[in-house]
Each structure stands twice: as C-alpha cells, then as structure tokens.
Specification:
single chain; alpha+beta; four-stranded antiparallel beta sheet; 3 helices; about 25% helix
Length: about 150
C-alpha cells in the first residue's frame, strides 16, 4: 500500500513538472500585453505628458510626437529614442510596477505624471508617482520622457 502511494505521488509530481515546463515563459510573464516594436514613419505615435508637483518650472502638459520626433516636449528626440529602446515584443515602457513587488520604503517626492495617447499602435493611459522605490525606478526608466528628479 505504501509503495502504491509513493508511486502515485511521484507520478503526479512528474506530470506537474512536465506540464509546467511545456508552457512557454511568456505565458506566465508579468508584462505589458504584447506590443509590437515601433514602426518608423507611421506618424501614429502621439503622447500627451502631464506633470504635476515636479518643481522648478517642470509642471505642465507637453505633446510628444515620434516617428518623426516633434511636439512641445522639451527634448522630443531623446524622449522618442528612449521609448523606442524600452519597447520590444512582450514588454512596453508604460507597464505598471509589479503587484506585490519588493520595493524600498523611500519617498521620491510629490511629483506625478499622466501619459495618454497612442504608442506602437496601442492606447496609452499610464500614471506615474514617486511613492516608493519601485515607482521611482519606473519613473526613472522613462527619463527623458519624464524629467530627471533624481538630483
């Protein structure tokens, strides 16, 4: 009887491992929904960036057009290049911070940003804050789209 139980447990564990190893990593990755890389020359990449409480005259609303770069953003070319670098299949630059992630308990200031529009053919509606280490890192990843507040 004991032998039968041990054999059943071992078989069940092996079957579970085989099922999990057959699933591609992307199926259980915590990432932004699949997003194609930006296509140059489409003119569809338009974002509105609204900053509040960023200090030093940084607050306001800026328009950012990419492919080609333009708009009222203070550094449209560098901002578009950063977004292009951060966009790849399966990930996107506007993904939220991971739920339940281990974040340092630090406060990066009252600054907030709201980005809306279209990027790589997908709608964007992302909010950024600096309330803990994960949110600060998420903000810093988008510099120069968002201002560098690390100083």
């Amino acid at each position: 009887m004991l032998r039968r139980i041990v054999l059943a447990v071992a078989t069940s564990a092996a079957a579970s491992f085989a099922a999990l190893s057959a699933v591609p990593p992307v199926a259980y990755a915590d990432s932004f929904p699949f997003m194609p890389p930006p296509v140059s020359g489409t003119g569809d990449d338009h974002l509105t960036v609204t900053l509040r409480d960023a200090g030093e005259g940084r607050d306001g609303t800026f328009e950012l057009d990419c492919h080609p770069a333009g708009g009222s953003h203070p550094d449209a070319v560098a901002a578009c290049e950063q977004l292009d670098r951060k966009t790849s299949w399966g990930t996107g630059p506007f993904a939220p911070a991971r739920e339940g992630g281990m974040c340092t308990m630090q406060y990066g200031g009252p600054a907030t940003a709201h980005i809306t529009g279209t990027w790589a053919g997908r709608p964007v509606d992302a909010t950024y804050r600096r309330g803990d280490g994960c949110e600060i890192a998420r903000w810093d990843t988008l510099v120069p789209v968002l201002p560098d507040l690390s100083a």
